[in-house]
Amino acid sequence: MRTGRYSIAELFGNRHIEQLVIPEIQRDYVWKAEQVQGLLDSILKNFNDWKQAKGTPRFKVVPEEPQDIEKHPSLENDFTAFYAQRYHGTNIGFVYAYSDGDLPGQYYLIDGQQRLTTLYLVLLAVASRNDDLKERFRARYCLQSTDANPGAKAIPTKLDYRLREHITDFFHHCVPYLLENPEHAETLQQQSWYRKRLDEDKTVKNLINNFTKIYSHLENELDSDCSDDAFKYLDDLVDCWYFDTNESVQGEELYIYLNARGESTATNENKKAELLKSLSDEKKEDWGKKWEEWQDFFWQKRRKGLEDKHNNPNADRGFNSFLACIKNLEKLKNKGGNECEETSLEVIEKYLSALKWLGDNKGSFKKLYSYSGWVDSWFNEIWSVFNNPAMTDWDANFKDDKKPTERNKMVLIWGSLLSIFSYFERNDWEPVRINIDDIERIFRTIRIFWLRYKNYNRSVASLPAAVKDILFNDSPEFIGSESKEEALKWNLLKNTGDEERRHFEAVIWEIEDHPFNIDGRDLDNQNISHLVDLNEQLTLETLNNVKETFYRLFPKDNKKQEERTIAQILLYYGEFWHHISPWYHKNYDFSDWRRTIRGKGNVEQNVAASTTVFRLFFQDFMKKNKSPNEFLKMKQDEWPESIDPVSETSLRKALIWYSQKLQDNFLKEGMYVVIDRPQYEESDANFPKLSPIWNTSGSFKGRNKKMSEQKENG
């Protein structure tokens, strides 16, 4: 999850977060009545101010033309939302967390535990006041819906206490209980699931005491008919600064990050004042009008590239990010000097012209191709970078290994802007002189940097020279191993006619844009060469066959059953799986298709691209007009070996044996196979020379079963 400012609803509802966990290394929940009272008073004061104003700003939007309000009905609503957040919101400060790659969705709190726990209790107390709010609380702040009469049932919560095992169990029981019985917190100790040792637990005592305090205070200070508004306020107008330590590594300055956001002041307004102050009145008026037009442009694009849940009520975020972006891009063009002068109005205008040109001309480029789906994805991503609440640190050093995400975004944004900016410079800033052939060349260049971005390339320092080389040279130098595939494609296409080249490019792009192919990060930046040899013998017919076959194997609707079938087929070609943590037993991932299709599963060693397990299968599969299930049946019938379980020592052959026995039930628990669990010293029930072979959903906390215990021919 990205670092940024989030409302409580956005934090708990983020798609990346399953649970916010208070781990065992954290201290107890120690807030006392006075600290709880302080937070509660602050929230209630801001809530009452907000409710009294009824969300109506003291200022009104006055458009130059009255009909503008009719054209943009969301204008006043957006301003009202912005005003409410600015003047009546409650910020609870910083929340720090980290995630464990082995446990996706689990985010472990480093700081913010006391405030988030107290706020969770406030939400629980407010929600307990009516049935509709109870349902909303269950949906957002619990992992499962709770029954109206939960009894002894424990319900996992999105805020999860793991200080000690008995606290986890207590919290999962007390939340649904208090949701239904808020006035009877003192009876918690009488419930069947309550354990005597909880009496002396500091966290448990403070949870009970503070909830009682909160509920009593709300009963006295908050009218029952205000409960819905109060819950909405807690959801949407109480927020925090969330800091993800996985994304922003140690040593990063939080102050710089917050300063770059432009939240407390409108940075573009400050820059405007600085740039206009030395101009004559006539020029000041002229440039002032242009600046307002630029702000209006970013206002119109304020939601571009954002998910629906992200609110962006004004132009500031996008405009501020754009200004910071081009300032450091100019620094790069000026050979990376330590400092550069303030970006001039003329330079800002040129870059803005370049950005507008890209949006205005992408449609002309798309019309030339039978497939160009990547163009809209690329353009939305540009605006996502500018408009995202997690602002990019554009001042990051181009070579700073601690800023990989920022450098990767620079490859995308700067590579795209330089592609058109360089053409403008060559044409003396007369865009009308750029013809359709130029448009093609520009977007072909952008495609290269789009792929580099998707491959997590961070090579920033060479961008200006690389862009010009690709734009203006018929035989550009693609330097470095990361550019090997780029050079192969360029040499394949450079001597083809215009129409033929477009046909080739459209098919290549569609193959590359499959989710398994587009992300070549840490996989030699391969987006297509793992499937087909990019040489002079390659025909359009072969390329189309590759595309159709790959999408037949891995359709966009992502049928999991098909993936299980493909995994069974691959067993007949060799070992392909990927060894992952935990390392105290052999845990093999059969579903990492990014690696598998490239022959990069770490059990598959030093294999040429043309002879990987997947490539050998893929070449065979292209020749057969069969479904994956039909192809699997063919391989099973053709299998020449008789596998003797008593003497067999090969895991692959044991899995083939189980695959033939279990049929549709093979890998039914999940796409993971585990052997050599330390606590299991006995042998597999069918293969005495191997330890038990387990099929799991990824860990032993989820679904798991020994293959020897699974039903045959399910």
From TrEMBL:
<feature type="domain" description="GmrSD restriction endonucleases N-terminal">
    <location>
        <begin position="8"/>
        <end position="275"/>
    </location>
</feature>
<dbReference type="Pfam" id="PF03235">
    <property type="entry name" value="GmrSD_N"/>
</dbReference>
<dbReference type="InterPro" id="IPR004919">
    <property type="entry name" value="GmrSD_N"/>
</dbReference>
<protein>
    <recommendedName>
        <fullName>GmrSD restriction endonucleases N-terminal domain-containing protein</fullName>
    </recommendedName>
</protein>
